[in-house]
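Entry 0007
Protein: MFS family permease
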Amino acid sequence: MTDVLRRGRGSLAFSFLVQGVAFALLVTRIPAIQDRYGVSDALLPVFLAAVPVLAGIGSVTTERLVKRVPPSRVLRWSQPVVLLALLGVGAGEHMAVLGVALAAFGLAVGGLDASMNMLGVSLQRAYGRSIMLGFHAAYSLGGIVGASLAWVGARGEPALWVSYLPVVVVLLPAALVGSRWYVDRGGSPRAEGAEGEGAGAGASTWLLPLCLVMTVAYIGDSTVSNWSAKYLQDVLGSSEQLATVPYNLYMVTTLLGRAVGDVGVRRFGAVAVVRAGALVAAVGFAVVAGAPGAWVGMLGFTLLGLGLCVLVPQTFAAAGRRAFESGSPGASDAAVARLNVFNYVGFLIGSPLVGALGDAWSYRGAMLVPMVLVLVTLVPARSFAARPDRYGGGHERSRAADVGRGSDGL
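Output (C-alpha cells):
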C-alpha cells in the first residue's frame, strides 16, 4: 500500500466529512432561513425541491465533464462553491439572493457528490478491499458535527452568517489543502479515450437494479429525516424535546454501521451485507409502524440507521465495479454519476410520499410503504456481486477484491 493511496484515502475521507457538515448546517437551519427571508410555508417546498433537482443536473453535467478533466479537479473546485453558497444563504437579505445561493449550492452538490464517489470507487479498486463504507462514515460524522454546530448556533440566536462564517473560514482552506492529495483512477494514468462508453446504452440493463436500490435507500433516509420527529410527537405522544432524539439516534447508528461495515463486506461479501441491511431496515420500519409508545419507536429508528447505512455506499461500489468490468475506466465514472441522480430522486419522492399517505390514510400505515420498498431490494441485491464469468482464473484475486473480499486477509 503506497503513501500516495493512503494520503488519497485520508484527503477524500475529509472531503466527505466537510460535505456532511455543510449539508447538515443547511437542512437543520431551514426554519431560521425561512424566517430570515420571509419565505411562506407554501413557497418553502419549492425552494427545498429545487436543491435536489439542480443537484441532479450537476451530477449529469459532471458525467460529461470528467471525460475531459479528472474527477479530482471537479471535487477540488466544487467543494469551495458549496461552502461559499452556504455562507451566501446565511448572509443574504433578499429572496433573490436566497434563490441564487441555493441554486449554486444544488449544482455544486451534484458535482461534489458524483466526483467524491467516483474517487471513492477508484480508490477501493486500488486498495483491493472494501473501504467505501468508511468514506460514507466520515460523511455521517460530518452530519453529526454539523447538526451539533447548528444546535449551538440556534441556541445563541446569532445571525445565520455569524453561525456559518467560522465553519467556512476553517473548512474551506482545509479542503483546498487536502485536495492536493486526491488520487484519480487509483493512482493510474487517465486512460485515453475513456469516454464512459461502457456506461452507455448497454449499461441500462445492469444499472437499473442499482438505481432502484439507491432510490429506495434515500426514500428511507428522507422518511427518517423529515418525519421521525413529527411521528414520535403526533403519533406516539412523546414530548417535543424527546421527538428530537430519533434522528440523532439514526445518525449515530448510521455512523457506527458504516464504521464497521467494510469488515462485514470483506468477510461475507457485498450481497450478504446488502441483504442483511435491507432486512434490518424493514424490521425497523415495522417496529416504527407498530410501536405502542415513544421508546419502542426510537428502537425502530435505531434499527433503520443500522440497516439503511450500508445500501448507498455499496450501491456506488457495485456500479463502479460493474462498469469497470466493461473494460473502460471512464465507464465507471459515468455509471457513478448517473446512479448519483437517483440519490436526489429518492429524496424528492420520500418525504411527499409519506406525507400524502399520512394525511390520506395514517402515518402508521405510511411507514409500511418504505418497509415494502426496502424488502423489494432483496431481489436486485444479487447485482452487487461481481460477474465471475468476466475473467479467467488468473484474475481471481482482483475479482475477489472488487467484491470486497480480497485475498491474503485483505
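Curator remark: The first helix runs from residue 3 to 27. The mean pLDDT is 87.
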